[in-house]
Amino acid sequence: MMTMTMITRAIRASSSSSSGMWIHALPPLFFSSLSDNNNNNAFHSKSQRFDTLDEALSCFNGMLRMNPPPSIVDFAKLLTSISKTKHYSTVLSLSLQMDSLGIPPNIYTLTILMNSFCHLNRVDFGFSVLAKILKLGHQPNTATFTTLIRGLCVEGKIDDALHLFDKMVRKGFQPNVITYGTLMDGLCKVGNTSAAIRLLRSMEQGNCQPNVVVYTSIIDSLCKDKQLIEALNLFSEMLTKGISPNIVTYNSIIQALCSLCEWKHVRTLLNEMVNSKIMPDVVTFTAMVDALCKEGMIAKAHDVVDTMIGRGVEPDVVIYSALMDGHCLRSEMDEAVKVFDVMVCRGCMPNLFSYNILINGYCKIRRMDKAMLLLEEMCKKGLIPNTVTYSTLIHGLCLVGRLSDAITLFNEMVDSGQIPDLVTYGILLDYLCKNCHLAEAMAMLKAIEGSKVDPNIQIYTIVIDGMCKAGELEAARDIFSNLSSKGLHPNTWTYNIMIHGLCKRGLLDEANKLFMEMDENDCSPNDCTYNIITRGFLQNKETLRAVQLLKEMLARGFSVDVSTTTLLVEMLSDDGLDQSVKQILHNFFK
After folding, report:
1. Can you tell me the distance from the alpha carbon of 210 to that of 218, in angstroms, rounded to the nearest whole number?
2. Torsion sign (Cα): 148, 154, 155, 161
3. Is 32:59 a contact under the CB 8 Å cutoff?
4. Exposed end of the chain (fewer CB within 10 Å): N or C?
5. Mean pLDDT per segment of 10 residues, for the chain of length 590 residues?
6. Do 378 and 385 form a contact (C-beta atoms < 8 A)?
7. Is 400 within 8 Å of 363 (Cβ atoms)?
8. Which three-class secondary structure state does DSSP give residue 16?
């Protein structure tokens, strides 16, 4: 049963700034200076609109002191207006006040309350509202069930949403286009586009026909799944049925076409859009600019931005950042900075992502002085560097041999409250190992294991590689053998490193055992694996086994690499090599 306690708990549990004000942060009750009669006229209008939340609260407080009080319908109108501004916590607090004053709810106010709970990710309280609806003798309707289905979908509980949908139909409630659309969108968001399409076909067989929102939801999901042909087929089907696409439909397909560099089809679709009186928006242009920049077509990307401005669409920080990234990919840092300056001049403030792009660009060309100045600049502007910022700079410092500075920056990162991720740890571990600081690397590995970040196979592989290269094979073997106890499985890279370390020590039997284990553990050897172990056998005069591996390698479609080829040539040219060994090698090359 829905209680005042539940509402209070929900309000206090909500921490999202977009959800509205806390109950204890609401302004004190204050009264309108208008007369009661004037207020009644206002409250009985068809709709209530407010410029600010304070105005809505002032209106609510005025309603509470009326005698006689306005009808529950007027309260429902007020709560609806507040709900539309996404101040869901405020809706809960006002509902609490109404309940405490004995104002009886109706199906509409209870549905608004249920909707607010669902938007605050508390669908469990939403079901409590449903229980209260039934207890008060009200009849739930399609909108009631649709609200709960949306709440379940938002929380990723798609199976529960499907179950509720089936139950709703069995109880005789007819789903409408919003119900179907909500469920299809939920299915698409969890990657089950095929189920969404089946639901679409089921919908078409009934009395409810899909609209542009329903089609767009599935088309967008197909595009994100890289099923462009299926998306275009559904797009054509929509047009055949006389359903006109909207800007969102076009943007979904254009973004997919841009990612595949299908520029001819992009142009065709853009012309079709304009002919349909649908003008490209900032999302359309962003998709084009981003794709062009990633393909290195930076001049064309600039042309698109010029066209965009000419059409009266102002570029946002995302578009400017895409242009900067395009120049950074080409190491054109001066041009990237020019774009940055233009962005600022046009009144578009750079964000953390913009700075990260420039910092990454400077780090790649090893201009760490410039990169560190950008870090200082962004901090002065009130932007807080994130894990990506620090990881990029740490890698840049390591790249130019400033490992101690990288460690200092890492410590500053931790002190500032930023939590290192596996990328950050991986960078430092790699360079600690490369610089033979194995004790520090092991200490860091222990620190990772003791943190909230679970090290993955890449982290352990970096350390195993460092140990093998430093000749610490026993330590590497211990880490490798303990992987399974940590719930991890070696990948091809891990196996290659261990096999190489064992071959260098002449431990061919152990290396061969690991090699044979790979297929058994669903980790197939690659060309690098074959070349490593083949060289190991050749260097240890196990020529017959090496030739067997060479034949096997070629049969599996792998190639002999430069290092193995060089070794074979050197062996054939070695006058001191046993003639029987040379004969085996000659036979292989025949």
Report:
1. 11
2. positive
3. yes
4. C
5. 47 41 29 34 50 82 84 86 88 86 86 90 90 89 92 92 92 92 94 94 89 95 94 94 94 94 92 91 93 93 92 92 95 96 94 96 96 95 95 97 96 93 95 94 92 92 95 94 92 96 94 92 92 92 86 90 88 74 69
6. yes
7. no
8. coil
